[in-house]
Amino acid sequence: QKNPAYGEQEDHSVITVYGMPTCPDCAYVDAQIADHPSFQFVDVGAHVKNLKAFLRVRDKSPVFDDAKENGYAGIPCFVLADGTVTLSPEAVGLQPKPAEGKACRLDGSGC
Hints:
It is built from three helices and four strands. The chain is of the alpha+beta class. The chain has a four-stranded mixed β-sheet with strand order 2-1-3-4, with helices on both faces. Helix 1 (24-33) links the parallel strand 1 and strand 2 (39-43). The chain is globular, with a radius of gyration of 13 Å. The relative contact order is 0.23.
């Protein structure tokens, strides 16, 4: 799903990854993209501008419907250079974190 809000992003030449270091799935992805010029990790908890950029994507993309319905934050989130939004690491050539239990929920459970 392409997201019109992506035009507001700073760098269109890379895949933007929205996440937080405290999220186990995000940390797993971040380790894979470290020093990889095709990815830019944006810590949504580091600054309100990062959170707002992520929320613009999340609020406008139907990719997040299931996450919102089930109380998940929807991170890591990947925004491709063409504006396509996905929650799948495999869609951008990365490996997902091996399943160890539930994903983090907005209410703090599952982490």
